[in-house]
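Backbone geometry tokens:
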Amino acid sequence: MKSWFILLVIFLFGIVFPLKAQELLLTPQKGEALRIFPSGEVFRDEIWMVNLKEGENLLKWQRPENVSPEEVNIDLEGATLKEVVHQMNNQESVLYLEALQGGLGKISFCYPWKTLVVEPRYQITWKRGAALPEVVLLVSLEEKSLSPHRGTTVQFLGREFSLDLGPGETKTILVASFNPLAAQEFLEHRSGEGGKLFWEILLPPEFLLKAKVEYFAKDGPNVTFLGEGYFSPETPAVKLPLGEARDLLVQETMVLREKRDRFYNNLQEEVLYDTREEKRYHLENLGKEEKRVVVFQQVQPSFRVLETTIPIKREDLNLISFSLILKPQTGTDILLRVEGQRLTSGWVLGE
């Protein structure tokens, strides 16, 4: 009888005074990973191991400064999340967890990390005589906040690196070294403007980033800095200017310009006419290496080809082009005969 009385007292005590949820203590060591996306966005994974008790568990977690509750994603192993209460007067969040059994559990907090400055950079070096240049992809990381990163795992472009970075420090990571899918040096000549040399580098799709580009020429032990620019990944090819072409010559000569079928108004003013025009381009490679040349020519929309010694490409309504490869120490002439219809001013081949 006495034993039944004791059990009844315990039962009633449990109803009136329910047991509190077990408050979990975060372990002194936490794991940290920084995930960097090609867009430059950074997310921080904060990982804690906890000793779960069977039933309801309570965890207090301090959110970093400038991280709102809506930006935090919580992932659990070993328990389910019942409720989260975010304190508005401070950065504390209280998590209520339910564990089916006791044991070791893992809690991950993922949120944007806005104080890490990410600056990717391509370094492209083309060795004289090599078919393709070498591309080195680097990424510089600078922490603007007072939070250090010690033994942090950095995930970037499917690769993982270990990072030790203090507040205000900058470190550079070598991400990858590779050859492009294709590369060429060519002369781009625009009628009336002269010629410029360029490199065009076709990058693999897995390494397309909005990034700074530095490019170098290597001849034996000598490395020459050629310039820098910025690459945007809308297209996989990066076009790098090298300056004036010294060993490529393009000369333009107008051979014929005549007007036909001319129309006049009542004041005997010319208002409409057709044209026949002929232009010769002399191209010469004075260098010791094979070179590709692309020539651009402004035209009026009514332009029509009558005869040409090379295929012509229509770039847009007012621009045509042709290209060819010149062997070392060789030259060639290109003839272009065209007509313009119903012009009101100028010539169909622009200056």
Notes: Residues 31 and 40 are 22 Å apart (CA to CA). The chain has three domains: 20-112, 116-244, 248-343. Residues 2-16 form the longest helix (15 residues).
